[in-house]
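Bench notes, bay 3.
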Amino acid sequence: MSAKKATSRAGPAAREPLPGQQRPLLHLILHTARLLEAMIRSQLEPLGLHHGQGRVLDVLVDAEDGVTQVQVAQCLGMRETAATQVLRRMQELGLVRRVPDEQDGRAMRVTLTPAGCDAAAQVRSAWTRAESRLVAGLSPQEIRRVRRVLHDLRAAMSGDGLGPVPD
């Protein structure tokens, strides 16, 4: 049996270094991100949502007058075509409303429906639980330090042509 097959059966937690080895920082960051995504996915799937839809709901919940599809894409670091596909599906699910923008008829303005507002509250609750688990055992000072370091790493990465990375 190959190592890849053994790792995929055991799940993300099985990717620990061998004794005496230290994995590169990149591996730790990617592994942590996969664990968080798996945790969030397990909490969003019962709601019939995926991670990308949750991120869109989180953007829209604070935008009383809605935002344009382009703004959604920019805020989430997505291609506009990908954002359009996600928003179209969310409209089919009754979570968002897309209407032509009054100032720019070419643009579509996106707002949450009442069902979208309910779903956004559930998404925020799921993310709060995930973040609480992530930082359990860290002091407030350590959390601030981690946040600062992650912002610095993100800023370093956004300077290499990848473009802005969303919060």
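Next record in the batch:
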Amino acid sequence: MSLKTKTSRDHLPPPTDKYSKYKNTKTTFRKKQVLNSAFEIDSNFEILNAVGQGAYGLVVAAKNKATPKGQPSLLAIKKIEKAFEHRIFAKRTLRELRILRLLHHENIIGIQNLLLPKSREEFDDIYVCMELMETDLASIIKSSQKLSYDHIKFFLYQILRGLKYIHSAGIVHRDLKPRNLLINSNCDLKICDFGLARAMHFKNTPKEMTSYVATRWYRPPELLLETKEYGPGIDMWSVGCILAEMIKRRPFLPGTDTTSQLELIFNMFGTPTEEDIAGVDQVKARQFLRFTRKKEGKNLEKVVFPGTDPMILDLIKKMLTFNPKKRITVEEALRHPYLADLYCPEDEPVREFVSAGEFEYEKHDLQLNVVKDLLYEEILLYHFPEFRDEYSLKVLKNEIELSNGNGNLLQKNHHHHEKHGNILNRNGSKSETESGRQQFFAKENICLG
């Protein structure tokens, strides 16, 4: 009697037969060339024009001809090209789509739909239907359009309002910058691009993540120094840089490499104290800081931002504090006197932490084909109620296993009022912006024509 030996086949992903019942036999596909990209999507969508292009692919403005009368028919469709060429990029795409499915907030870009491909076998590109926005903050800053202090305050408030919800969900964005803040002509602002975001699942384990995140100019000292543990404070540093950039109309700390970025920070704010240096968890980083020539920093009021409201400068300094444990939190920033005329905690929604079961895959070094399966399943959630039911049970099972295995899942914040059990809520209710804030720019809207 011969023993059965394991072969390479035993390590292959399961066959895609399990997806056969989800083949798309209803959609009439139509192909259209946009710039250098072929869009093959539902014929109900009329592509109007390209609105953005990057390494990820192409975004077009489109009209949904099947939209019921009286409802908005314009939307943005983002084609993620070559999504499966590299495992890392595929995993980043999965992370972003999953996070955006779980977050529902006025100041966060919303996914309306993920277009269903013909089948799992013919699944090569990803089409994301989103709200159509007119421009981004980077374009406004670079333009000659007026950007008053009232505009700056309202944009800042919306960034913080969205970030409060993101942090309450246990998510850190990690790549906040003007390009990732979308804006409409009525001054609505929405945070986008969650490809580098992370869910902070566990409360007692070190939050070790790669330090190579965030565009360098908006990167806090703890990332530049490659510390092992960091948290929501990295987003607050980025917001401080963005606020300063809106005032100056140019990047505030435009370093050319990591060393020059740290030098700019120290020239502006002074070198850290011995107490703050002692709190850095990397030995080499502590040595570097102790041998750095001591600097006092600049006088922000007189030299850097002459004539600027002292309350704005106070908030900038609290956001751009070297020690992340002393840096202002998003809730504290919203309560800052500078935002007193906009602050409305009743209209600043929060939620429970996202389910750790949604991100169980992060524990594993998955093959590209498995990541592709997970992305296909993410799309199925938008189209098949029975699949959503199966998926909900899988998430619950993952969470129970993680909880039993670690015993240290983040405790639920019972003061939060949105349950993570909502797997898909494309039509989730949104709080209405307070009427006083809605009219904040009635006299002075930005023209984005």
